[in-house]
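User: Need the bound-state model for 21W:
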Amino acid sequence: MKFDVLTLFPEMFEPLKTSIIGKAVQNKILEINLINIRDFSKAKHKKVDDTPYGGGAGMVMMPEVVYDAYNSIKNKEQAKLIYLSPQGKTLNQKKVIELSKEEHIILLCGHYEGIDQRVLDEIVDEEISVGDYVLTGGELPAMILIDSVSRYIKGVLKEESTKEESFSGNLLEYPQYTRPEVFNGVKVPEVLLSRTS
Ligand code: 21W
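Assistant: Bound-state model below.
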């Protein structure tokens, strides 16, 4: 599965180089391409934002630079473009599983007050939020989406891990224990001691 990420802050995505996702990228099971929107600015000093028409606080990302960054993506016509936005539909496990069936996802991360509506109308297929609280941009939400969706790509996790979730239905969980058998005077529950799978 391939993710292309359109962002002003590609350096925020370093965490995806570690652990399970990092390993899946190394093993070519996942491809994650970071596209720095600023590289496509034709304005003085690589400017990417401007004051909003109608007034108001903050800055708005200009449409042309976002559009040019988008147009640099190979096979963009076949991809699903998701705009991470506080106005989007909240991500849940059902949506995560649905997205894991896509071959190619483009993630558009806004920063500042958002992105000029005209380029959004032109390129966005779906708007997704990660919850009802305010962040500074779409980068952390994009990482949440990549992390949660990638778990469902074959070869990313050990076979059983996601199966167990669907078996237990509602992400039902239980306390877990590992060695030592006694920690701070507290023993692992007796029923678990004879089963090491
Ligand atoms: C937060 C941008 C608030 C803009 C008109 C004028 C992506 C996010 C984000 C951000 C505003 C997600 C406005 C949960 C999040 C994100 C940055 C306010 C209002 N409209 N999921 N002013 N929370 N946040 N703009 O914040 O980009 S997914």
